[in-house]
Structure formats: structure tokens, C-alpha cells
Amino acid sequence: MQKNKISSAVVRRLPKYFRFLTNLENEGVEKISSKQLSEITGFTASQIRQDLNHFGGFGQQGYGYRVTELKNSIADIIGLNKEYNVVIVGFGRIGRAIYQYKGFDTKKFNVIGVFDLEEGTYDEGKIEIKSIDKLESFLEKNDVDIVVLGVPKNEAQKICDMISGKNVKGIWNFAPTNVEVEGDVAIENIHLSESLYSLIFYMSNPEHY
Amino acid sequence: MQKNKISSAVVRRLPKYFRFLTNLENEGVEKISSKQLSEITGFTASQIRQDLNHFGGFGQQGYGYRVTELKNSIADIIGLNKEYNVVIVGFGRIGRAIYQYKGFDTKKFNVIGVFDLEEGTYDEGKIEIKSIDKLESFLEKNDVDIVVLGVPKNEAQKICDMISGKNVKGIWNFAPTNVEVEGDVAIENIHLSESLYSLIFYMSNPEHY
DNA sequence: TAGATTGTTAATCGATTAACAATC
DNA sequence: TAGATTGTTAATCGATTAACAATC
Question: Which of B42, B101, B206 sits opposite A186 (nearest CB)?
């Protein structure tokens, strides 16, 4: 019954399509062809059509795609029209940066808890930081969708062990280590130093860039 | 004369090899086979050998690889044994997080300048924040290898236009937009919302995870 | 020498690109 | 209708995996 898995290459392009289409919408563009989208995104027109057709036919032959309609369809596919309860674990530099990140719609991403080794408050008492000791019971009592992991690498796996069986659906991991969690939990890693090291590789080896 | 380009898939695995080998070294492990490394990393033994052999033969038939030696070789390949002068442009949440990020060796990454719209100081006067107006002349007078872009998306391309022709070798871009720069400059993007959106896609569509 | 494991070539698999029939 | 552009199948390309000879 299960359809073929969407390859991760396609999944990584979906947010890019969403971003470019949002820009086009803001510029007031109403229609776009795969050829035009190709020029903007750098992907081939063929690839764009292939990608979209994994999820359905959003275009009109001879015409192209309606920008707003396609943008909204992609938002639905990704799941951007739902709300998510988020907990930030580890309130160091990265946890704080994520807390205040303005890049995504904060109506959809409710940070309902912030945890760190040290209890306390932050931002003139506006943020209550709870002890990590209380994370497990918090996850049991609240409907947490996403855990943002901003703890040191030694702590990351311990937190993930707490998470399994708590109905958490995704982990956004900033710790520089691979974590595992039991059950149906998606994990997305941001490994900053790996990204920097890739950059340095290309700087050191420009013939491969 | 130019050899075949190393594929980006390989380049992205190099920092992972480096990370796992560093861990192994710290644990006191002296030798490792591609099969053992496969179990640790999740890559196939075949792939690991293929990847390494793009850069030379680092192993010994019948024996395996010496951990420290291989780790050092990979560091050399990536370019981790050199020093880099870094400038941070945009000192908001992300710029600050990167400034204080402890994940990479700060001896090798000298932050020699921090720029923002507003001049000032930070961290009890320890950090001087210069006006972005002065960035261009700073780049001319100093040998800057890497520019970290932590500005809003509308500003990002303007900064990149300043950068071309200034001997900058790499841009680490955190702005949620694609930037371009003339000349032989490597660009590495960290698109936080795209990463989050991928996570949400898999949360919403677990059958594709 | 025998066993182990690399380095490397060949086979397979999957993703991208090209082509074109369908159709607006 | 003619022109344009999608949706989709087929061809190509590149990356991964398998196999094995080389050799420590």
C-alpha cells in the first residue's frame, strides 16, 4: 500500500520551492512555468516537474503553475499549515538563537518550554528556564511535537533516551553528534562544524568546487 | 590536468569521518577497519574505502587504518591544519552564536572583525562592533579568509557584492536566501528554516522517513 | 604461509535529464 | 486551431554497492 519513498533529495528541495514561491508571491507574480522557475532556482525544469508530480499535478498544461496555489500546496505537503509545540533543551548560545529566531512563523511554532541544567529566568523574566530534571515529566504532561536539542554532545543521547515513548514527533539536533531515538521520531541534524569544514574543504581545494 | 571533481556527497562525508575518527582517537583506539568504521558511521565499508581512495591509500592491506594517521590525513585534506581569519557580518542572534561557538578550534579560527549596522561594543567591551560601512575597506586592508553572513536576507547580497575581488575565499551564509559572488569564492549555506521544514515534512509524512 | 583487509574494477541502483504525448 | 507547457515515460548519468585481485 505504501507508495515509494520520496527521496531525501526531493524533500530537501521542497522548502526551497516554498521559499522561492513565497518570494514570487510577495512580488505579485501570479503564474510561473517550470522553465521560469528553473531560471530562478537553478534546478532543471524537468526536475521541478518531476519533483512536484510526486505529490500530484499542480499545474495546467499549456499554462504553467499558479504561484499562490502551488505555494499553498507545498506548504500543505510539508506540513506548514499546522501548529507545533516546541521545547528547547539546552539554553546556551544555540538554544537562545533558536528561541529568538525570526525566520519562521512563531504563531505556528509555540515554544512551550525551555530547559537547561541551571534553572532561572531570562530576558527580564519573560522566559522561565526549567531544570532538565523536569523534562521527562513535562513531556508526559504536555503535547510536545518538536524537541530542539542545543545541549553539549555528551548530553544529547541522554535527552533522546528520555524522549522515546513521549509522543514527540521530531528532534532538531544541534549537538555535534549522531543521536538515536526509539520509535517513530524524525531527526534532523544541524552540524555546524561539518558545514564549516565542508566550506574549508572547498576553500582549500577550489578545483573541486 | 584537473582530476575528476570530488562529488559533494563525498565532501559532506569527510567531516563526519573526521568527527568519528577524532572520537575513536580520544577513546584510545589505534586501528580500525573499514568494516568497523562502517558499523560506527552507518556508511558501507565499500563506500568508506571508495571515499578515502579518492585522496590516496591511507590503509594497509590485511590490517586496516591507523586511527590517528587517518584522522590527520583527513584534517589535511579538508584544510583543518591551517589558520583562518574570519569576519562576522551581522551581529544578531546568529552572529553572536557563531562568535561564541565552542565547537571548533578557536586557535585556527581568528575572528578579526565583527560588523553590524550599529557600531558599539559587546561582552563588557571585549568585542568591538564596527559599522558595516567600514567592511569594504577592512577587507582591503586585512587578509580575511572567511566571511560569516548573519544579516537579514535583504542585506545578504549587498554584502556579497562588497566581497568580490577582496581575496575572501569562503562565505558561510546564514541568511535565508541564495547569494552569489564573483570570483573563486566558495559559499556554504546554513538555511535553518529549510532544515526545520524538512524535519516537519518527515513528521507530517512519516511513511517517507 | 594463511587470514585479513585494502585498493580498485565491475555491476547495480537510483536520481537526473531528455523526450514527447496529452491537453489546456 | 496553434502554441505552450504540463505530466509522464524512457534514456542517461552518476553514485553506491559488490566483488575480487593485490598484498600486508
Answer: B206
